[in-house]
UniProtKB/TrEMBL annotation:
A Pfam family assignment: Fer2_BFD
UniProt protein name: Bacterioferritin-associated ferredoxin
Cofactor dependence: [2Fe-2S] cluster
Entry function: Required for mobilization of iron from the bacterioferritin (BFR) complex.
Similarity field: Belongs to the Bfd family.
Species of origin: Xenorhabdus bovienii (strain SS-2004) (Xenorhabdus nematophila subsp. bovienii)
CDD domains linked: Fer2_BFD
Keyword Iron attached: yes
Residue intervals of the BFD-like [2Fe-2S]-binding domain: 2-52
Amino acid sequence: MYICLCNAISDKTIRNIVCQQHVRSIRELRDFVPVGSNCGKCIRQAREIMNEEIAQLSPINNFA
Ligand code: FES
C-alpha cells in the first residue's frame, strides 16, 4: 500500500528502511526516501508505520 502518493513510497519500503537502516525518526527516514517532501499529507501515517515497525523490533516493548 502506498503511504506517500506524491513520491510512490509504500509501507513496505518504510518498514524495510526501519529494519535495515535502524532509523528512529521521520528526519532519519528522509535520509533514505523523500517521504513528506511534497504535500506532507503522508507524514502522520509514515510515522505510525515507522513506530509500528520499531515496536516489533524492540523485544523489550513486548514486556511493557
Ligand atoms: S503524499 Fe507524501 S508528500 Fe504528498
